[in-house]
């Protein structure tokens, strides 16, 4: 993984996934995904400050990437087949 990809994963894709069910009237955050994202962000900031290795981010980022990809496929499937709660 490249640094720019990890930054996008943490600041955009995982953030949006954690908030996928939110509306302005009913804010909702997936706490499990958000906690992983926050842990990874802390490590990312430490990496930027020279206090951690980039490789320290990989285990968390791989889990986040898998969740983003899995949920993206599920949400697309749900949209394609018109299945809703």
Brief sketch in words of this structure:
By secondary structure, the chain is an all-alpha fold.
Task: Name the features.
85 residues, mainly alpha, 3 helices
Give your account of this protein's structure.
With 85 residues, this protein is an all-alpha fold. Helix content is 68%, strand content 0%. It contains three helices and no strands. The chain has helices spanning 3-18, 31-48, 58-81. Helix 1 packs antiparallel against helix 2 (31-48), helix 1 crosses helix 3 and helix 2 (31-48) packs across helix 3. The longest helix is centred in the C-terminal third of the chain and has 24 residues, at 58-81. The chain is elongated. The termini are far apart.
User: What Rg do the Cα atoms give?
Assistant: 14 Å
Alpha-carbon distance between the two ends: 35 Å
What composes the largest sheet? none
Instruction: Extract low-pLDDT stretches.
Output: none
Mean pLDDT across residues: 85
What proportion of the residues form beta strands (DSSP E)? Answer: under 5%
Name the helicity range: 55-70%
Total count of strands:
0
Q: Helix/strand/pairing class, anyone?
A: mainly alpha
Query: What global shape is seen?
Result: elongated
Order of helices and strands: HHH
- Number of DSSP helical runs: 3
């Amino acid at each position: 993984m490249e640094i720019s990809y990890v930054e996008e994963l943490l600041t955009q894709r995982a953030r949006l996934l954690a908030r996928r069910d939110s509306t302005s009237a009913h804010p909702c955050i997936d706490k499990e995904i958000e906690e992983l994202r926050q842990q990874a962000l802390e490590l990312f900031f430490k990496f930027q400050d020279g206090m951690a290795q980039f490789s320290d981010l990989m285990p968390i980022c791989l889990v986040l990437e898998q969740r983003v990809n899995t949920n993206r496929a599920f949400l697309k499937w749900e949209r394609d087949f018109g299945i809703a709660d």
